[in-house]
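Section 3.1: Structural characterization of target chains.
Under the original work plan, the team committed to producing a structural model for every single-chain target entering the pipeline before any wet-lab resources were allocated. The record below documents one such target. The sequence was received from the expression subgroup and is listed exactly as submitted; it comprises 83 residues.
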Amino acid sequence: MNSSAATHKSQFKIHLNPIIDLLNYKKTVMQFEQWLAFLARTESRIIQSPEQFLGHDLPHPTVIEQIVKEIFAEVFEKESAVA
């Protein structure tokens, strides 16, 4: 990962922290299958509307998708393997 992508990744993590906290909370109150679907929808929405979640001055959409998927895979590694 180049330094620009690493910078974007660290910025995205900051923006996504509240969403990750929400997803972790939802995991405790939803059935696992429902939560996996919610997790996938949330990731998809972030990728489809990055300005809403990640701010402005964003990289190319392909880079956004790659970084968001990396972050979700790292944070929800165990669950991603199940899905």
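Helices lie at 3-29, 32-48, 50-54, 61-75, 77-82.
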